[in-house]
Amino acid sequence: MMEEGQKLAVRLVGRNGRRRFDQSSKDRLIAACLEPGASVSKLARDHGVNANLVWKWIRKHTQPLASPPSSTSSFIPVQITAASDE
Fold first, then answer.
1. Angle at 44 between CA 64 and CA 49, to 5 degrees
2. Theoretical Cys-Cys bridge with 9: which of 1, 14, 25, 58, CB 3.0 to 4.6 Å?
3. Is the pTM here over 0.85, yes or no?
C-alpha cells in the first residue's frame, strides 16, 4: 500500500488550473486501490484528488487494450450485371 506521507506528484498545472499528474504516481495509487480491502474514496481523499477521477484511472488501467484496426478491407467487391428479360 502507498505510504501515508506520499502524495501524487503534479507534473504540470495548466492555465485553467487543471493538474497533470506524474504517471508513476498514478500507477502507485492505482496499485494501492486494487489491493484487497482498500478504499478508493479514502485513498483519493488522502491524495487530494476526486474519487471519480481515480475510478476513471482504474478503468483505463484495467480495460484491455483496443485491438489495432485490421489491414484487410471490410467491404466485399460486388459485380452488377444487367437484368435479363425472360
1. 95
2. 25
3. no
